[in-house]
Amino acid sequence: MIAKLDELRSRALGELDSIDTSSGLEAWRIRYLGRKSALTEVLRGLATLPLEEKRATGAAANELRTFLEKTLTLKEEAIRESEIARSIEQGQLDVTLPGRPSALGRLHPTTKLLRHICDIFMAMGFEVIEGPDVEWDYYNFEALNIPQDHPARDMWDTLWMDFETEDGRQPMLLRTHTSPMQIRVMESRRPPVRVIVPGKVYRYEATDATHEAMFYQIEGFAVDKNITLADLKGTLFEFAKRLFGEERKARFRCDYFPFVEPGVEMAIDCFLCNGAGCQLCSGSGWIEILGAGMVHPDVLRRVDYDPDVYTGFAFGLGLERMLMLKYGIDDIRLFYSNDLRFLRQF
Ligand code: DAH
């Protein structure tokens, strides 16, 4: 029996020498260590042997099994290494292949313009403050001189969402403009205030090429002693020059907004035709860019600013409209439809 085991050992080792693949090695394992191998058979047959022989054969067979298992592990490693070496050699790296570019993100055109405009006003001493998109009726309308049932409410198509408080249901809404922040800021500070408020605003609107249900506005206001319409003009003319270029002309005309008196609209001379009249400016030579005015005394009273001591100006502009003008974009919906072909152009 012992001799048989010795012969088994040398046969197994002999065969192992010529094996150089994982699959060949697996076949070898089954042949010499598997359930039907000669070695397993010897181990199984031990029970039928006389005691002395059982001891000796058992020890030798177990030793052989351990030896073959160890040899197998070593061989496995050697084969794995040579297989890796072979595959590296076969699939050699082609260092002349062009690399795969990783796509770079970029800022959305609205974000870029928004930051640019904020920078311009910050350089003039304004502070940037943001406010909530969801707003009380009080801030969006009431405190801005637009009481309930006032026809001016029709100027803003509103998305309403009532809110349950301890006093019952309160009218809440998605802010239709950034002007409510005038009230929030002045409520919590004493003059002088010089603030701009960038942010999203919402309108209950059927979308089309010039209307979106969500867009961006930037509100600005300054309140102090002795602020006059001349300060408003100076600030906004300077802003227009810094944004659109030194050569741009600007013009004010009367307009109406309930929270300012007087109210104005500002236009710049058309940068496409330089004021001669073209399609972009509908032949007028001027392009309206924002609404503004002197803060209404009733608005100042609301926040406990004495209108006999303090005065201020305010303005609000729509960002997408400016971008459309600047880049000749004819559909506002392009901004927020996430079409990369459009966004990559900026
Ligand atoms: N909030 C106005 C709107 O959405 C824009 C506006 C006009 C803001 C005049 C102002 C202002 O601060 O003085 O139409």
Short structural summary:
By secondary structure, the protein is α+β, with helices and mostly antiparallel strands. The protein is 40% helix and 21% strand.
What would you say this structure looks like, in words?
The chain is an alpha+beta fold and 346 residues long. It has 2 domains: 2-89; 109-343, 2-Layer Sandwich (BirA Bifunctional Protein, domain 2), CATH 3.30.930.10. The chain has 11 helices and 12 strands. The strands form 3 sheets. The chain has a 7-stranded mixed β-sheet with strand order 1-7-8-12-11-10-9, sandwiched between helices. It starts with a helix and ends with a helix. Bound molecules: 3,4-dihydroxyphenylalanine. Residues 177, 179, 219, 257, 260, 291-293, 314-316 line the site of 3,4-dihydroxyphenylalanine (DAH).
Question: Top keywords for this entry?
Answer:
alpha+beta; single chain; 7-stranded mixed beta sheet; BirA Bifunctional Protein, domain 2; 346 residues
Question: What is the secondary structure topology, with strand pairs?
Answer:
Blueprint: H1 2-17, H2 22-33, H3 38-45, H4 51-90, H5 109-123, E1 127-128, E2 134-136, H6 137-140, E3 159-160, E4 163-165, E5 168-170, E6 172-174, H7 180-188, E7 193-202, E8 214-224, H8 229-244, E9 250-255, E10 260-269, E11 286-295, H9 297-302, E12 311-318, H10 319-327, H11 340-343
Parallel strand pairs: 1-7
Antiparallel strand pairs: 2-6, 3-6, 4-5, 7-8, 8-12, 9-10, 10-11, 11-12
Helix pairs in contact: 1-4, 2-4
Bound molecules: 3,4-dihydroxyphenylalanine.
